[in-house]
Amino acid sequence: MQYGLLVMGAPYSSPAPHSALRFAHAVLARGHQITGVFFYHDGVHNASSLMAPPQDELNLSEAWAELSQQHGVQLDVCIAAALRRGLMSESEAQRHGKQAFNVAPPFELTGLGQLLELQQRTDRLITFA
Amino acid sequence: MATPDALLVIVRHAPHSSNWLREGLDAALVAAAFGQPVHLLFMGQGIMALLKEQGSGAPGQKATLPTIDMLEMYDIDKLWVTEGALQGMHLSADSLVGGVTMIAEQEVPGILQQHSKILNF
Asked: What UniProt keywords are attached to this protein's entry (chain A) (predicted)?
């Protein structure tokens, strides 16, 4: 089965992203596919490459990137929700005159249309919020 | 009642206490702009999004009522509200904006079953 995940909780303040990640690995272990993950609402914070939790805690941004690299999972981040919360790619940082950026591949800033497309393309879209 | 590929957007959060309502409505508007039929179901505190004559909230917070008023322009004309949510807050149907359809709590499972695509905010 093709699964899509919608993540709307922020790392370390909501259990949602961690649950989503565990769900993704369980689904893959059962032989299903994860087509993509869409980060919306406070979930966009998962994409921050600047998160630096203590070493004995899971770095969620790195864990998502690893999932993407190992299983070809697309990681899409809602651009409107991200910019509002101070998450931006290098090109967006330039466009907005900011000195730093914190969103880099495999995370991609994209529009809400991608969420709807993910929902159309998959058998199940599961929300973690 | 519902077209097969319609998107159901469920709103359960009041305006201003979080960004749930605004970002939920954004998702509904984008889907409608892409030509997908969209239905909205307001439950619990979510019904407060439909209170007419509401202001813009605390200073610096943008009002959400103009977005609600805009839904019709996007052909979003199914706004379901559960009677229980209204009664729970001692509100009457005439305190809400026009074009709202009241439904009984028992109708919610049927609505959920009619939609294969649901987003919950």
From this structure: Cytoplasm, Transferase
Domains defined for chain A, CATH in brackets: 2-128 (3.40.1260.10)
**Where is A6: in which H helix or E strand?**
strand A2-7
Position B4 pLDDT exceeds 80: no
What DSSP character marks residue B62?
Answer: P
Give contacts of B27 with chain A, Cβ < 8 Å: 40, 112, 115-116
SS (H, E, C) A21-82: HHHHHHHHHCCCEEEEEEECHHHHHHHCCCCCCCCCCCCHHHHHHHHHHHHCCEEEEEHHHH
* A11 counts as catalytic: no
| Residue ranges of domains in chain B, CATH in brackets | 7-120 (3.40.1260.10)
- pTM of this structure: 0.94
Q: What is the pLDDT of residues B58-98, one digit of tens each?
A: 667 788 999 999 999 999 999 999 999 999 999 999 999 99
Chain A positions touching B119 (Cβ under 8 A) are 6, 115, 119, 127
